[in-house]
Structure to design on (168 residues):
């Protein structure tokens, strides 16, 4: 079993064992692989994992509702267990006011092409919020997330409200 070495805030290293779940060819660096479609996973497949990371993506009008159905399926699989479900979401569902009545996706400057995705991911998050039987964490990237950007090793934990670099 391979180990991914990570450094924590105290500059000490710890080992993280990673298993990728793929429906096709494994294109990740993980050497431990479950080759199954997400919807074919069962509770036994996830037994013994400390955490499950959901980075599901659907982009077409026909598949966008799967953000809810896939998340519900994963929630059902880890329901009542100690396994933490970490969901990689979008910035569109972050709130832009302290009253939590307006979200990034509601803004006039939010790109129309991303609204259907943000709406469906936001719906899935709303459904997740009702799950008291699952230990979950929802992770929203920066509004201008750039995968190929400089790695600076600093992250802002901003809760459910949009946080700008200039405000920290």
């Amino acid at each position: 079993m391979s180990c991914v070495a990570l450094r924590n805030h105290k500059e000490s290293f710890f080992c993280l064992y990673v298993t990728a779940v793929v429906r096709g060819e494994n294109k990740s660096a993980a050497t431990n692989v479950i080759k199954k479609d997400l919807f074919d996973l069962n509770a036994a497949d996830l037994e013994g994992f400390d955490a499950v990371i959901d980075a599901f993506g659907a982009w077409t009008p026909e598949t966008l509702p799967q953000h809810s159905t896939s998340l519900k399926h994963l929630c059902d699989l880890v329901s009542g267990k100690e396994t933490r479900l970490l969901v990689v979401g979008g910035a569109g569902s972050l709130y832009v006011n302290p009253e939590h009545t307006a979200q990034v996706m509601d803004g006039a400057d939010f790109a129309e092409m991303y609204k259907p995705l943000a709406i469906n991911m936001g719906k899935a998050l709303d459904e997740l919020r009702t799950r008291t039987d699952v230990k979950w964490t929802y992770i929203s990237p920066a509004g201008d997330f750039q995968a190929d950007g400089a790695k600076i090793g600093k992250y802002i934990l901003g809760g459910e409200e949009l946080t700008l670099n200039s405000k920290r």
In short: Residues 92 and 105 are 5 Å apart (CA to CA).
